[in-house]
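User: Can you recover a sequence for this backbone? Please restate the input before giving your answer.

Assistant: Of course. Working from this structure:
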């Protein structure tokens, strides 16, 4: 084959293949294009179907929403919602059904799991129906009289329901009784339904999840309630749905393809919709509302939220989209729970109100504002002001979308804490709005008044028909005018009655004694527009109509004054007569009989009521102004302790000084605007007595017109008919000597004044004063540059901004005296140094070296401070408190009588919760003491080389007197090992003392020392003179203090304490500070000791007489061969030897400490007098020892050195069950006997009274007990008698005095010692087999060591061993009782910011523990 033919044969097949490929490619392209087109077509179809489906869903949603709105509109058309609502919330157990309060609380604890051993069924309390109904009627009447028109009642709680459900609270129709009472009073009743509750079989339960079953159960309950038609509306709450530990599990089991938040929010919506639909289906005429939390969402959660830093939002934290619910129209009305104060940082009232108002305005929702009246008057988070509720109501009434207010506690409104309700009602009156009940009352009063006038006109026929009609019209008009009557301030009266008379009431009544210059204020209550006159002593006075609240509806208050003058001693003034006339009718009333007492009253007379006559303005009205009198003359009072004090009563201070407190804070503590009122000060009372709770008790006060509160016991009513309202201050003298500046004011009356210190000046605002003297530019004074008046306020300008060193105010000889401490520099400065604690009060003494309790460290530091100050030229008053228990009042009195300008109270700190806390800090109260506090803190920290914690404000009793600059220094922490070790060392004590002295010198030199030495007198008129004022009473009749000497001796090597100053009250033979001594019993230094128990004395208290000896009973658990250390804190009181024998040396108190291994314990030893000496003869029998008291020394060789216990067992049932043992005699478990006495114990056994009893005495040589429970006193000493019955036990302490300790022969002693060992072992076995387990220690624990003021925490005592018998304790606050309190259950409640130490003590008093709590 040729080449060409071969090529032809190849090309042919190739061309065929190519053709086939081409055809295939063409088909592939065609098919691909068709596929793409098909896919595009399908996508378009799918998209179209999706859009259609979406449109259908939107249309369905719109139809549903429209249906809801139509349903809501249909329902709304059958009812009308209140406008300008004034409502209050009531709760069963609080305002009514108060018999159930305890049961409700227990049920709440059960349901929340807080109750221990909670029962599954709630215990039912039978309620007296008649009393309950009466309680409801009284409550409703009080609410109506207050001006409320609506009540919101909580329908259910953990105890049960108010309606007839499967779990009713009571057996009768209480909701029906409530409904009847409310509607009969013309009010409306709304129910608050909590969706979180479901009524189970016999008990209430929480709804744990939202599902078909719980929704059906909820719907059934709501239908039962709505069908009864006893309510005017239902408010739903309890729908909030916070995330719990079970939320995620429920979510995953649901299988919902949404987020957890969405799932929970949907459940909330379903729960609310279910309730709303059920109510509307059951009773379409019943409006349904929704209670709203204050914040729907913040701007951090949603752009349209509220701009607040708040975490507990409805949408975020509680999965409730309340905004969406409202916009959907799910309910008929809402109530916003706006529970923050106006000044709240987290939820300020107005911010919340404004946000909701904008939303409601947009959607047209009817809304009401809810106020936290339950917080009213509580000085916390802005709620203390007495006008807080009133101002909130004003804000709410100005929000256009709100139709009224609801207050969350009727009980608080009725209680009116700190006058909060009073101011709220004043706001209502000022607004011109009256409730329906008020309007009804007005109409009834007007109708009654008109009818009475018509009857009178018809009977007398003294006028024609036209005149009668004029009278009726005028009277109706007068009733309407009362809407504009404004309330008064000092003399408001309570409503008494309303009648048709023109004249209703008058004052004064009874008998009044007057003198020349007295002013009699006459008050009349009459109809508006009347002509009112008073006749006094034949003289007619016109009374003027005022705008003050008369206290009687439809009437006005008329006031006039009569000034007594130009009378003779024989004048007969008779009675005051008041006459009122209007529209032809005249009424008269006869009032007080006026007894004229002759010339003007003075401080030396029984009357203290006159004022200066206009003709002699320089004459004192309540005392003469003898310029030569320099000895203090105490004002004579004209008061009565039996005269009733009420609103408007003039009172006078009858104590040395009256402490004052703020009226705008519901607190037992003063603030820095509160200064004491001196003896004799006069002021008016406003309102009734005020009570404020202090722990478990109450303190009682009167509110004064000057704007302060005082203790009721500090004032009495003035008996003379005097008015101080036009007081005149006619002269002023400013006098300076080397020590003091006196501002002396000639005043008609001893009126009250309000001091106000600010840097560079101090002001005194004098009350009820209408006239003052001229100003003075002071060129001769070391303290002030000027004394100027602005109306009734005196302003004293300081030469040096820091020159104010305290003042003392008093009244004498018709003058008001203000005495100020002059600047001196350090030389000549009078300074009191007060060592904290002392005597029987050791301060902090637990868990530290017993040789160095707080009182000793305070004493040593104070001595060094006093010594360093004296070295600089100061006059120092070192209070001798170490060995003498000195009250706070006595400390202050000594400082005041010393005329101190500085008061330094020296303490040391502790922290039971933070052992690492360290450093110095210093507390002040008045702002003029702050600079010194800062310098003191810096100085003590420098002296100890520790942290400077700075100056801190707090209220301590000793730093709240303005007579001097006062501070309380906490030098260092006893609970910090570094601070504590330093404070025990002489070198650091000396450094701290020197640093304090340097700081005080610096402070005084910068407090106007450059002007020291100026003297001189300047007056606006006649020169006035004054004394140095009253001195203070000191306990014991003496000051108990002296000027300290700086000559202290070298410190003792054993105690590191220097001797006291020469002024010490102790004898020279005994150091002023204790001298400790330690003896060591050699033993194993590495032995392990678990614990140490004192078996004698068991109560760790030993009472001895000088010369007595006593061997301690000590039980060591662990290595009994361990080395022991015995220490006495003061060998001058008692010593202890290596055998553990204590010897009483001299009168006093000390502490004996035993240390073995790393364990320790201590007892308190009190030594008194001298003991009777016993015979040394070993042959003397026990019966003859009592006659051997003439021997020269006590000999204990004839008696065992330790106690000998003894147990007797009574016959009885060995297996009987005993619940507890109670000692009925002696109840305090302490028995004092004399040798030879017998006493049968009073013992009550609860349980099996036939049970076997075991009686044990811890020392039969002190007292024995027989099988009948009869105790016989054997010899002087102390022992413990223990009674065990079943598995319960108890003990009493027996103290035997008189005669001598019974002694026995040596052989008997040995025998009895052996017997004692056998008895002890036998007794131990008996205790073990009986189940009685003794306590070895206790401690306090809690979930945290801090609590907010006004809140509470539970404290718990842990016993060791845990099965110890009789785990009852008593609770007390041992330090910081001003800041917190504890009840008998261990519940601690914070009161004010500070620290409190709580103590728990076992019932037998043998063991105690403390716990320190910070109140935030």
């Amino acid at each position: 084959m040729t080449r060409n033919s071969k090529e032809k044969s190849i090309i042919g097949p190739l061309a065929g293949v190519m053709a086939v490929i081409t055809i295939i490619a063409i088909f592939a392209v065609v098919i691909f294009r068709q596929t793409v087109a098909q896919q595009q077509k399908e996508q378009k179809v799918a998209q179209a179907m999706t859009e259609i489906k979406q449109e259908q869903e939107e249309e369905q949603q719109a139809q549903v929403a429209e249906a809801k709105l139509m349903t809501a509109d249909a329902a709304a058309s059958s009812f009308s919602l209140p406008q300008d609502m004034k409502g209050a919330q009531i709760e069963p157990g609080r305002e009514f059904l108060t018999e159930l309060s305890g049961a409700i609380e227990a049920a709440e604890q059960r349901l929340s799991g807080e109750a221990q051993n909670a029962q599954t069924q709630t215990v039912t309390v039978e309620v007296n129906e008649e009393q309950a109904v009466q309680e409801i009627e009284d409550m409703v009447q009080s609410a109506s009289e207050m001006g409320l028109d609506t009540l919101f009642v909580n329908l259910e709680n953990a105890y049960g329901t108010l309606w007839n459900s499967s779990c009713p609270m009571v057996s009768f129709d209480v909701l029906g009784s409530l409904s009847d009472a409310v509607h009969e009073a013309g009010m409306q009743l709304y129910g608050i339904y909590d969706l979180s509750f479901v009524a189970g079989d016999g008990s209430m339960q929480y709804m744990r999840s939202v599902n078909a079953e719980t929704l059906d159960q909820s719907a059934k309950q709501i239908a039962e309630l709505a069908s009864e038609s006893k309510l005017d509306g239902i408010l739903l709450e309890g729908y909030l749905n916070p995330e719990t530990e079970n939320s995620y599990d429920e979510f995953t089991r649901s299988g919902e393809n949404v987020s957890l938040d969405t799932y929970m929010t949907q459940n909330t919506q379903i729960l609310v919709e279910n309730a709303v639909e059920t109510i509307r289906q059951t009773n379409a005429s019943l409006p349904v509302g929704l209670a709203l939390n204050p914040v729907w969402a913040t701007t951090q959660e949603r752009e349209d939220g509220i701009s607040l830093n708040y975490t507990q939002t409805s949408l975020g934290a509680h999965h409730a989209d309340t905004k969406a619910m409202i916009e959907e129209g799910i309910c008929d009305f809402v109530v916003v729970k706006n529970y923050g104060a106006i000044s709240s940082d987290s939820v300020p009232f107005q911010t919340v109100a404004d946000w909701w108002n904008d939303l409601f305005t947009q959607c047209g929702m009817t809304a009401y504002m809810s106020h936290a009246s339950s917080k009213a008057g509580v000085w916390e988070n802005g709620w203390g002001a007495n006008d807080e509720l009133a101002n909130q109501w004003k804000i709410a009434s100005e929000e256009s979308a709100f139709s009224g207010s609801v207050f969350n506690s009727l009980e608080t409104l009725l209680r009116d804490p700190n006058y909060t309700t009073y101011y709220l009602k004043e706001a209502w009156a000022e607004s011109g709005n009256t409730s329906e009940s008020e309007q009804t009352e007005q109409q009834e009063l007007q109708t009654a008044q008109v009818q009475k006038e018509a009857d009178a006109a018809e009977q007398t026929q003294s006028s024609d028909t036209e005149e009668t009609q004029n009278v009726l019209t005028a009277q109706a008009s007068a009733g309407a005018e009362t809407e504009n009557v404004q309330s008064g301030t000092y003399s408001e009266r309570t409503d008494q009655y309303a009648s048709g008379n023109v004249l209703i009431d008058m004052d004064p009544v009874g008998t009044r004694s007057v003198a020349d210059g007295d002013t009699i204020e006459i008050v009349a209550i009459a109809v508006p527009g009347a002509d009112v006159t008073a006749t006094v002593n034949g003289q007619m006075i016109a009374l003027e109509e005022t705008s003050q609240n008369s206290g009687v509806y439809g009437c006005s208050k008329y006031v006039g004054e009569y000034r007594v003058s130009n009378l003779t001693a024989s004048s007969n003034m008779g009675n005051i007569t008041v006459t009122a006339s209007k529209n032809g009718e005249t009424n008269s009333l006869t009032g007080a009989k006026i007894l004229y007492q002759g010339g003007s009253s003075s401080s030396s007379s029984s009357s203290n009521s006159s004022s200066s006559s206009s003709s002699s303005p320089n004459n004192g009205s309540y005392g003469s102004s003898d310029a030569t009198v320099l000895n203090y003359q105490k004002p004579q009072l004209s008061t009565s302790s039996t005269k009733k004090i009420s609103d408007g009563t003039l009172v006078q201070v009858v104590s040395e000084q009256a402490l004052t407190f703020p009226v705008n804070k519901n607190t037992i503590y003063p603030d820095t605007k509160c200064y004491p009122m001196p003896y004799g000060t006069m002021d008016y009372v406003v309102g009734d007595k005020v009570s404020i709770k202090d722990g478990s008790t109450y303190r009682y006060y009167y509110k004064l017109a000057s704007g302060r509160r005082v203790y009721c016991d500090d004032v009495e009513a003035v008996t003379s008919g005097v008015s101080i309202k036009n007081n005149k201050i006619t002269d002023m003298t400013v006098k300076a000597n080397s020590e003091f500046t006196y501002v002396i004011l000639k005043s008609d009356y001893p009126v009250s004044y309000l001091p106000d210190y600010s840097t560079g000046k101090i002001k005194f605002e004098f009350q009820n004063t209408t006239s003052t003297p001229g100003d003075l530019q002071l060129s001769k004074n070391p303290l002030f540059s000027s004394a100027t008046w602005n109306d009734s306020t005196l302003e004293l300008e300081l030469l040096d901004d820091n020159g104010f060193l305290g003042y003392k105010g008093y009244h004498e000889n018709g003058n008001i005296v203000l005495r100020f401490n002059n600047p001196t520099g350090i030389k000549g400065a009078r300074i009191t140094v007060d060592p904290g604690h002392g005597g029987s009060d050791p301060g902090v003494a637990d868990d530290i070296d017993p040789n160095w309790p707080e009182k000793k460290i305070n004493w040593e530091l104070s001595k060094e401070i006093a010594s360093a100050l004296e070295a600089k030229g100061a006059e120092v008053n070192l209070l001798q408190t170490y060995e003498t228990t000195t009250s706070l009042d006595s400390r202050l009195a000594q400082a005041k009588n010393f005329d101190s300008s500085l008061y330094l109270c020296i303490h040391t700190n502790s922290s039971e919760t933070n052992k690492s806390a360290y450093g110095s800090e210093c507390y002040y109260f008045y702002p003029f003491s702050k600079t010194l506090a800062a310098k003191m803190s810096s100085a003590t920290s420098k002296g100890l080389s520790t942290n400077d914690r700075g100056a801190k404000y707090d209220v301590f009793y000793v730093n709240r007197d303005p007579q001097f600059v006062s501070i309380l220094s906490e030098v260092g922490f006893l609970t910090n090992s570094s601070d504590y070790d330093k404070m025990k060392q002489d070198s650091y004590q000396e450094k701290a003392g020197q640093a304090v002295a340097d700081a005080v010198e610096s402070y005084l030199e910068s407090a106007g020392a450059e002007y020291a030495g100026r003297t001189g007198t300047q007056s606006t008129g006649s020169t006035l003179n004054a004394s140095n004022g009253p001195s203070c009473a000191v306990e014991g009749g003496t000051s108990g203090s002296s000027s300290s000497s700086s000559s202290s001796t070298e410190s003792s090597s054993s105690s590191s304490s220097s001797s006291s100053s020469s002024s010490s009250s102790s004898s020279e033979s005994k150091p002023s500070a204790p001298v400790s001594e330690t003896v060591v019993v050699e033993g194993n230094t590495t032995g392990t000791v678990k614990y140490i128990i004192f078996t004698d004395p068991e109560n760790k208290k030993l009472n001895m007489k000088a010369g007595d000896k006593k061997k301690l009973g000590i039980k060591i658990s662990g290595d009994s061969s361990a080395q022991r250390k015995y220490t006495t804190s003061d060998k001058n009181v008692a010593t202890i030897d290596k055998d553990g024998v204590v010897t009483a040396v001299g009168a006093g108190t000390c502490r004996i400490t035993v240390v073995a291994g790393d364990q320790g314990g201590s007892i308190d030893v009190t030594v008194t007098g001298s003991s009777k000496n016993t015979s040394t003869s070993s042959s003397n029998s026990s019966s003859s020892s009592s006659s051997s008291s003439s021997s020269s020394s006590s000999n204990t060789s004839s008696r065992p050195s330790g106690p000998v216990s003894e147990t007797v067992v009574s016959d009885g049932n060995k297996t009987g069950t005993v619940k507890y043992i109670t000692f009925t005699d002696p109840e305090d478990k302490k028995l004092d006997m004399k040798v030879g006495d017998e006493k049968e114990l009073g013992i009550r056994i609860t349980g099996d009274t036939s049970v076997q009893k075991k009686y044990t005495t811890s020392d039969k040589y002190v007292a024995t007990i027989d099988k009948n429970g009869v105790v016989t006193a054997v010899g002087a000493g102390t022992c413990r008698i223990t009674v065990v019955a079943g598995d319960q036990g108890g003990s009493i302490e027996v103290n035997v005095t008189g005669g001598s300790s019974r002694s026995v022969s040596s052989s008997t002693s040995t025998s009895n010692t052996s017997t004692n060992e056998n008895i002890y072992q036998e007794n131990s076995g008996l205790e073990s087999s009986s189940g009685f387990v003794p306590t070895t220690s206790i401690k306090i624990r809690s979930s945290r060591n801090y609590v907010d003021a006004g809140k509470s925490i539970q404290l718990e005592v842990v016993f060791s061993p845990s099965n110890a018998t009789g785990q009852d304790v008593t609770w007390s606050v041992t330090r910081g009782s001003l800041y917190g309190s504890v009840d008998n259950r261990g519940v601690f409640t914070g009161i004010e910011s500070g620290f409190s130490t709580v103590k728990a003590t076992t019932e037998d008093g043998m063991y105690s523990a403390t716990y320190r709590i910070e109140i935030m």
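That completes the design. The radius of gyration is 43 Å.
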